[in-house]
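>> received
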Amino acid sequence: MSRVVQAFILTAVALFAHSAVASDADEITALLQDFLANSHTEAAHEQFWAEDLVYSSSAGLRFGKAEIMEGFDTDPGETEDANEEPQVTYSGEEIDVRLYGDTAVVAFKLVGTPTDTASGAEVLYYFNTGTFLKRDGVWRVIAWQATKISPQ
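>> returned
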């Protein structure tokens, strides 16, 4: 095989590998942004967290997906209004996705913005780190750590 053909093959493999990494990073970033935008819905949590999730909260509590999903249970007499505006909307800044095969570590700054500006509630900031695992072609979060950032 000529050196030109070998160089072409190596370049093509490297470009494909880089493209796959960029694609996974883009997919995870989109998953995160979509989750944050819809975090007030049960469906968003069902799709985002793996069944074997370990979540360490900024309040110093540790729990799993089952406990998160229990928070969406309503009493039989209550009706759930899917169109109700959440009290806080969330977004991510400074998103850093690091890929390790079928595992990814995502670190970012979570911003919680009150929807009622007249309430006097302040914007909240957290450092979050999540570990995603790709199983059967689907990325899900298996571990999460949240740390509240103190106001400066």
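>> The first strand starts at residue 49 and ends at 56.
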